[in-house]
């Protein structure tokens, strides 16, 4: 049967052949066979046949790929967040160490796996988004753009009546 481990398949066939409703003991044995098969697949030991071994190897490749993608996306998000908050602090003119005061309550419990109650986690989340919102509405040091970015005024060009295209062409 598809999606069943070897022991589970045999047990289900026995229950179906007997023609009776499965008992609590039968269901317990079925769960035990599922747990044993899943443990063997996870630890990659005791693969009873080539088909199961093939499934395990394919699953482990995609599982590894999924984990690497998750870690990479998390790292990119954290680096982007650090860059944006750091840039905003620099734009406002505040010292950069404030970045750690804003982000430490958010990331320290997660990195060090500190168990917190749900209310504390929600409070930290509201603090973080509130701090970002406050940073968004604080004006920078100089609201006008720097002089080095101002464009020069175009010089007037004399054209003959009806002239189009490049200058200097006749």
What are its keywords?
170 residues, mainly alpha, 5 helices, 0% strand, elongated
Gist of the model:
The chain has helices at residues 6-18, 24-43, 50-92, 98-111, 118-137.
Report on this model:
65% of the residues lie in helices and 0% in strands. The protein is elongated and about 100 Å long. It is built from five helices and no strands. The chain is mainly alpha-helical. It has helices at residues 6-18, 24-43, 50-92, 98-111, 118-137. The model has no long low-confidence stretch (mean pLDDT 78).
> What's the total count of β strands?
0
> Element order, helices and strands?
HHHHH
Q: Largest sheet at a glance?
A: none
| Uncertain spans | none
Instruction: Give average pLDDT, whole number.
Output: 78
DSSP helical segment count? 5
**Terminal residue distance:** 86 Å
Strand content: under 5%
Radius of gyration: 33 Å
* Class based on secondary structure composition and strand pairing: mainly alpha
Helix content class: 55-70%
Question: Which term fits the overall shape?
Answer: elongated
